[in-house]
Amino acid sequence: MADIVLPKNFVPAAAPAAEPGKPFIEIQDVSLYYGGAQALKNISLNLGEKVVTAFIGPSGCGKSTLLRCLNRMNDLIDNVRIDGSIKIGGHDIYAEGVDIIELRKRVGMVFQKSNPFPKSIYENVAYGLRLHGVSKKSEMDAIVEESLQNAAIWDEVKDRLHSSALGLSGGQQQRLCIARAIAIKPEVILMDEPASALDPIATSRIEDLILNLKKEFTIVIVTHNMQQAARISDQTAFFYIGELVEFGPTSKIFTNPSQKRTEDYVTGRFG
Amino acid sequence: MDNLFESGLENLRQKLLVMASRAETAVNQSVEALMQRDYDLALQVKTDDDIIDRFEIEIDEMAILLLTKAPLASNLRLVTVAMKISQNLERIGDEATKIAKRARDLSQEPPIKLQLDLPRMAVLALTMLKEALDAFVNRDSLAARVLIPRDKEVDALNRQMHQALARHMMEYPDTIGRCLHWIVAAKSLERIADHAKNMAEEVVYLCEAQDIRHTARKM
After folding, report:
1. Is residue A12 predicted with pLDDT exceeding 80?
2. Could you report the predicted ipTM of this complex, rounded to two decimals?
3. 3.40.50.300, 3.40.50.1820, 3.10.129.10, 3.40.47.10: which CATH number matches A23-92+99-115+187-266?
């Protein structure tokens, strides 16, 4: 039989999911209350660095609430109480004296509905950089280009950087928001259903982008689309009524979950 | 998943069971045609094989349609296992046809004077087939695991028959043609047991999500 010579950068199609490495996000006994109602119940889980973790579960299960705990977005809501601890890169993000602006620089977020500023494409990416002290134009130009390239939108916008971002399609706007998030070099990117309003082609581009971004960033994504979770995540956590039911490698959760509630959810028997 | 998906899954399961029943009948009839020297029954098995082939295509079509809905966990395993079981059933149909062809030819010639253990082998292979299908219907992983080692008994019987027929051919060269028919028929029964074993392994995967194929110690 002739020897088959593989290209140097060959990656088998069925390459195993990345092994979750050393925990980067450590969530310990986290409970969250909206007034008297408990929305999260003693959640503990560790998320690896530079892996994609998907949070899945029916509406109201607490997955978005937990996601928003990771950059303290819930602080903006009245009557919220959070117990337990969350460490990112070894630092307790709820410790006294934590600079929330600095935290949100380390932990960026992309929302379900793209929310570009009503400014030019260039300004959307440059805005956060300015806030964080970048003022030199050549440096700014370089970071804007790099961010747009990393968000896989550069080729589509390079000739109209100073046009309004609101003129872009929904999928392009979402990639612009990702470019805006990565421009300030966060360590973690949180994504709350980032492709739920997009068509299959735009969704596919976002998914390809996420797979590329995990080389540099730790990504946590909330999704209702289980096939999407299966396609892009390394680890999956399934939540139900505020509880973490099961957490493990995505391949296991979607082919052979350990818990009956997970099996029932992923096979569509409830939710 | 929606009710439409659930009903699609149930239709797939039902179709597979009808195919299984056809394949089981084909094996039964081919063995009967062989033992009873029944020319007409042998021809019938051969004709009916086309129906089993069509089942395989229809089951693949149904499974592919279900896969477009991206099932997960036990639903995903059921669809993929259904495709593999239907492939095994189609091959069982082919083996039954091979036996039937030999039965047809043997029925036109005088019997050989040799006591063969083919009925026992047929009973073993058919029991394995029936139990593999029951294990699938009942999602009984234990029953599937229990029947897998019995394939070895069928292999051993096939070897014994092969040796007996080889000795007979040397002793009575005029029976070579007929003995070769019997060797092929025995080999087909041995293959049917192999397919039953394959299906049992698929049932274990369906129930436990454990792939136990090729895990036995290799000779």
Report:
1. no
2. 0.71
3. 3.40.50.300
